[in-house]
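From the pipeline queue, job 12 of 40. The input is one protein chain; the requested action is below.

Action: predict structure.
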Amino acid sequence: MTSPAKREPPFWNEQLHRIPWCLELVAKAARIRDEVLEFVASSRPFMPYPKYGNLYSNTWDAFPLSIFQGEHIELSRKSLEINMSPLVAAYRKRLPTASSVIGPLEAEGVLRNVFVSRLVPGSIIHPHRGWTSDYLRIHLGLVCDPGCAITVGDETRTWQPLELLAFKDGGPYPHSVVHHGTSARLVLSHDLRLDYVARFIPEVLPAACAATPAAA
């Protein structure tokens, strides 16, 4: 008799301690937060995240720490009025601790789409899936508000300061965010290739477990 397929978890936070890179990220989290907050206070790096129709309501903005590949913004590159490469280089110089964590895996080709994301109170990111299922999206909480929550599939969580939250942006479940809090939420977002993650967490690969189909 064939055993029933195991349902894929919406979040992968509990497994991240098995990835050495994630342990390094958490170990340097306080320094990363302090550098980001100092940079944000002294500069104006944020730019509106592309809306792509009805992706979000109110205000969601971000600034890049890597070149985007295969993301929404990459697909819209021809419509962008700026070359992001000089911005990325300039921002990385101002954020040396984050850059030291990003650099090695970026050079290896397993890390991409790194950006600082800010969501203000009253904002909503509507249910959606990302463009690719090949990556695990990992958020490092920088400034958190318990009233700002993310729902992936049928599970809802909030970000915690200096801790990681992970889900598949283009995975089997739609995800959404609602900010009912009183202060801006800031996270540092990374996309880590699933085949790299699977070196440490083999069950992260889609073939290893079957997700319950999500409602349309």
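Job complete. Residues 72-81, 208-216 have pLDDT under 50 and may be disordered.
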